TrEMBL record:
Residues 447-549 form the Rhodanese domain. Residues 421-431 have a biased composition (Low complexity). Gene3D superfamilies: putative rabgap domain of human tbc1 domain family member 14 like domains, Rhodanese-like domain, Ypt/Rab-GAP domain of gyp1p, domain 3. The lineage of its organism: Eukaryota, Sar, Rhizaria, Cercozoa, Chlorarachniophyceae. This is TBC1 domain family member 23. It comes from Lotharella globosa. Keywords: Developmental protein, Golgi apparatus. SUPFAM superfamilies: Rhodanese/Cell cycle control phosphatase, Ypt/Rab-GAP domain of gyp1p. InterPro entries: Rab-GAP-TBC_dom (IPR000195), Rab-GAP_TBC_sf (IPR035969), Rhodanese-like_dom (IPR001763), Rhodanese-like_dom_sf (IPR036873), TBC1D23 (IPR039755). Pfam families: RabGAP-TBC (PF00566), Rhodanese (PF00581).
């Protein structure tokens, strides 16, 4: 930022209300400069009128010639931009990119909001392959329908302090629109629909048919499966998604709410059923919905991140509440003003959404935007997840984005390579992963998240091949609480890292797997950004194999400058092909390579895909360790039985060890 001029305002002028001296925070200034980036001289003129700068912000002199020139330029440019925007809106097929960019930069004009929303909703309907509503008001719910009686009762309670909705003609029209929607789309009326439809009466749309058209498209494209099933399976899925996001970004707050059984159903129902419509004044709500509609379809989780930001913003007050007052405090959580809407939307776009893995966003988006039954396998898997699951492709892309050369072994000095033997930061060749909030991921780009992979496989499997950015967190440490706590303290010093735990092929929903126990241990310690590799090391092994199918022949044979590498397999052999990206990969000992060889051998002999897998002796240490941990998992996590041996006592000590918050 340019240097501030020496001229200073009169004493205490910057601390009192004055029509001349204008104080803005650094964040407000950055936002304004970004908004006016078309004016190349905006920043220069702005700083020429600055007279005082401190950590809170900058004070400007509104009587300065540069400030007056700046105001004149802004007004002139604003008038020209507004003229072009309105000319675009009058076209039969407006350019939605131009409209979207103008509204993102300058906001949606209130008198054009109805037209802008309709255009954006029609675009979303085309992307979602949703047909246009027929709007036949002659086909309504029958008079004896139970849903119609609920509609009549809810219409009279819609925005009771708004004079418009107390008029009989408005109530009759709202009742007609709701009845027509339920009849046309074959859904049962649910409380909350009335608030969503009522908002479209506030947009200046010309008639009932226009209001019905826009409201139906909003229901079909923005509410997902919330109103589509009788058991609210879609809403339950959104609650599970929201808790996973809270656990990822603020595990301490999530653990505190879980401690008192404060599940999202108790405080966030109105956030996700009506998208805050029944909790906010209309002028505040439309600003929030402006942001939701201006986002692309692949970023339609914005309302979840806004709600997440609202909850985390109130965390200090919530953590000070007791079990008696906490439910009431949670039930009264709501966005307080238009300014807070802008702050939460900005934070969601610049912090929470970019800091959430792209593959996780895609998985959660697919769940949140479609009808889901609570008995479906997808919902059961979602309910059993202990943390978010990151795809192998994203982890591999993150590990090797800045590392094109063949990596070196990240084993520690004692040769063990196990956490607790040395600090993770002492692992040569292991890049320090960091999380950034610089931009949006999306599409096939995985975004700015960088991972520090914690490989939780047994040591013999880890030494037969692992990712370059992986550090070995030996599951044997579960029997050594002191070393496990020391490893947690070392990891806690790496603030801002996204930790991804990599295991074998054990299902992520199993409570008795070593990786699951380590996940729960780190979350209990308050570590942020804890995820698990979907499919484990095997998925990474397969992803790297797919990525290198088109590699050069010498690369496929594992040849380097000095000919074939003994660890990459013999020339022409299928074993080890394309796995040069892995560290210390030995196809003679790699579990996945041996498994693939056994599968191929079984297919050639006609004995089936699993023939030849047993009896190889590979991973025996891992199976023995898994059996020992399975016998003690209940003692460690839940304290269901008293320790029966020295090892189980150590596991109990691990539960009550030192705190090493993330």
């Amino acid at each position: 930022m340019a240097s501030v001029k020496e001229t200073s305002p009169p004493k205490k002028a910057s601390s009192v209300k004055s029509r001349r001296w204008k104080r803005f925070t650094h964040e407000q200034i950055r936002a304004k400069v970004e908004q006016r980036r078309d004016l190349k001289c905006y920043h220069t003129l702005l700083m020429e009128s600055a007279v005082e700068k401190d950590e809170r912000g900058i004070v400007f002199d509104s009587h300065h010639p540069s400030w007056r020139k700046l105001i004149s330029l802004v007004v002139t440019q604003g008038s020209e931009n507004d003229r072009r925007f309105r000319e675009e809106l009058k076209k039969r097929t407006p350019d939605l990119y131009t409209i979207r960019q103008h509204c993102r930069r300058y906001g949606v004009p209130p008198d054009a909001r109805g037209r802008v929303w309709t255009l954006l909703l029609e675009e979303a309907a085309v992307q979602a392959r949703v047909g246009k509503p027929r709007g036949d008001f002659t086909k309504l719910l029958p008079p004896d329908d139970q849903g119609l009686r609920v509609i009549k009762a809810d219409v009279s309670r819609t925005f009771p302090y708004n004079e418009m909705f107390q008029r009989p003609e408005v109530q009759r029209e709202l009742e007609t629109l709701l009845s027509a929607y339920c009849r046309e789309y074959g859904v049962q009326y649910k409380q909350g629909m009335n608030f969503i439809f009522a908002i479209f009466f506030q947009l200046g749309l010309p008639n009932s048919r226009a209001r019905y058209h826009s409201a139906c498209l909003f229901m079909e494209t923005m509410t997902g499966g919330t109103f589509k099933d009788s058991d609210f399976g879609g809403l339950q899925a959104v609650f599970r998604v929201f808790r996973l996001l809270l656990l990822y970004h603020d595990p301490n707050l999530c653990n505190y709410l879980d401690q008192y059984d404060m599940v999202p159903e108790l405080y966030a129902s109105s956030w996700f059923i009506t998208l805050h419509a029944n909790r906010l004044p209309v002028d505040t709500l439309v600003r929030l919905w402006d942001a939701l509609l201006l986002d692309r379809r692949e970023d339609r989780l914005l309302h979840l991140f806004v709600s997440l930001g609202l909850l985390i913003k109130r965390r200090k007050g919530l953590l000070n509440e007791g079990v008696v007052t906490l439910p009431e405090r949670l039930s009264r959580l709501a966005i307080s003003s238009i300014q807070e809407v802008e702050e939460l939307v900005t934070e969601a776009r610049r912090k929470y959404r970019p800091d959430t893995p792209a593959s996780v966003r895609r998985q959660l988006l697919a769940i949140a935007l479609r009808p889901t039954s609570v008995s479906s396998p997808e919902y059961q898997l979602l309910e059993s997840m202990h943390c978010v699951m990151v795809s192998a492709e994203e982890v591999v892309a993150s590990c090797y984005a800045e590392k094109k050369r063949r990596p070196t072994s990240p084993h520690t000095g004692d040769g063990g390579g196990a956490a607790g033997a040395g600090s993770p930061r002492g692992a040569p060749g292991t890049p320090m992963a960091r999380g950034t909030a610089g931009g949006d991921g999306g599409g096939e780009n995985f975004g700015p998240v960088k991972y520090f992979v914690l490989d939780c496989r047994p040591e013999e499997e880890y030494r037969s091949g692992h990712l370059a950015c992986a550090y070995h967190l030996d599951p044997e440490l579960l029997f050594k609480p002191e070393k496990l706590n020391q490893a947690a303290r070392d990891l806690a010093s790496m603030r801002g890292c996204h930790f991804c735990l990599c295991s074998d092929r054990a299902p992520p929903s199993r409570n008795d797997s070593p990786c699951t126990m380590l996940v729960l241990y780190l979350l209990q310690k308050g570590f942020k950004f804890i995820s698990r590799l979907d499919g484990g090391y095997a998925a990474c092994h397969e992803a790297i194999a797919r990525q290198h199918k088109s590699a050069s022949p010498s690369s496929l044979r594992g040849e380097g400058k000095h000919g074939p590498s003994p660890r990459q397999g013999l020339p022409g052999s299928s074993r080890g092909r394309g796995f040069e990206m892995l560290v210390d990969h030995d196809p003679e000992r790699c579990v996945e390579c041996l498994r693939l060889d056994a599968v191929r051998a079984g297919r050639r002999s006609g004995r089936g895909p699993g023939a030849g897998v047993s009896g190889t002796g590979v991973g025996g240490g891992g199976r023995r360790l898994f059996g020992m941990l399975q016998a003690r998992v209940s003692d460690m996590l839940f304290g269901l039985a008293a320790p029966a041996s020295e090892e189980s006592s150590s596991l109990e000590a691990a539960r009550g060890g030192d705190t090493a918050g993330g």
